[in-house]
């Protein structure tokens, strides 16, 4: 358990945050400039906040009121930066082994072979960083951090410098870290898709303060929490793969409701997370018939939020979980959408992108 309490003056605003990060992946989520990186740097010991106290598993890393400050190298944090920051004169293997030099002899260690297999970098071991892609560099940087036997991984927007293809390449490896290694992680992101794929806990920062903390499904399913903008709003559903069909579709079961996606590689019985964007959901007061869309979820309207524009955000409680739909205010009024109204959410199978489907954790 990581406990954080920080106060620090930043240009234009003051950072004042308190939160707890339980085991798993805790994502600091919010727009750029809200203080996310400052928090991570303070936890790592790369920045001294004006005031604060941070503990990890009961050990005090620093406490300004007691003038206690544990040096960064004694905190045993594995830091993954936005860029790989590999040593250019060393091979991949040598960069990885450099991490082992910082692992205490008494610490539980991952073997080099295990880390290489986990990250799929066996073919890269003799290369130097100059011959690696951005995604390959980040995988090596993750491996170096793991081999230092860290008590926690700190990942500061590790995908922000990558294009969409490289992001899709790296995300499954972070999922494997979460599911197979079990080292707690503090992960910084402003991407709702990354949060949906990785987070077990989400801490939303806004204007230097904690706006909301909770599970990924709770936070992403709350239409009031939109740090990445309305276009990024969406729900997160937990589902189980039931079978793969010959026509290229995969069938899932979520709360007793069938869902169909373009075929995925998970085996039947696997747990998956599915993010459904609010702007991809159509609403109907009656169960629709004669549609090409395969995913129809019955639900009840929880609330309808409107702003100054023509849009409305409708929150539905369905057997599969909370679903958000972004419609026009005119449509919401015409359908009589209000709390308690029965409704059906319609989602096209092909509207669910591969990057919105992750392992269940």
Structure description:
The chain has two domains: 2-228, P-loop containing nucleotide triphosphate hydrolases (Rossmann fold), CATH 3.40.50.300; 234-359, Beta Barrel (OB fold (Dihydrolipoamide Acetyltransferase, E2P)). It has a six-stranded mixed sheet, with helices on both faces. A five-stranded antiparallel sheet has the order 2-1-4-5-6, with helices on one face. The longest helix has 18 residues, at 164-181. The mean pLDDT is 89. The chain is an alpha+beta fold and 361 residues long. A hairpin with a 4-residue loop joins strand 12 (234-244) and strand 13 (249-254). The two termini are 18 Å apart. The chain is globular, with a radius of gyration of 22 Å. It has helices at residues 36-44, 72-75, 92-100, 112-119, 134-147, 164-181, 192-198, 216-220, 329-335, and strands at residues 2-10, 13-21, 25-29, 51-56, 59-63, 68-69, 77-80, 152-156, 185-189, 201-206, 209-214, 234-244, 249-254, 257-262, 271-277, 281-284, 295-306, 311-318, 321-328, 342-347, 357-359.
Structural descriptors:
361 residues; alpha+beta; OB fold (Dihydrolipoamide Acetyltransferase, E2P); 6-stranded mixed beta sheet
